[in-house]
């Protein structure tokens, strides 16, 4: 059973309010494969509380001048590399097939 933190139920607008990041920044971090929202059948992005935490960490690192490719490299290097890769693949499949 997954934690409530992992359930993708938060809209991009709410993520914007929680993090202070612009919608463009949030989408950019998705493009850079730093965050992996799910998509509804209509294409709406849905985020989890864990995603919000990751976005806040990314924002802190960006403020320190760390480039996105370095952040991604660190994400793959640290912790559970297989979990990051699984999230990347799930996000790509979801985006391609508009699955939930």
Task: Describe the protein's architecture and organization.
There is one protein chain. This protein has helices spanning 12-19, 23-31, 49-63, 68-77, 81-97, and strands at residues 10-11, 38-39, 45-47. The protein is mainly alpha-helical. It has one domain (4-98): Orthogonal Bundle (Multidrug-efflux Transporter Regulator, Chain: A, Domain 2), CATH 1.10.1660. The chain has a three-stranded antiparallel beta sheet with strand order 1-3-2. A hairpin with a 5-residue loop joins β2 (38-39) and β3 (45-47). The longest helix has 17 residues, at 81-97. It is globular, with a radius of gyration of 13 Å. The protein starts with 9 loop residues before the first strand and ends with a helix. The relative contact order is 0.17. The model has no long low-confidence stretch (mean pLDDT 85).
Helix and strand arrangement:
Elements: E1 10-11, H1 12-19, H2 23-31, E2 38-39, E3 45-47, H3 49-63, H4 68-77, H5 81-97
Antiparallel strand pairs: 1-3, 2-3
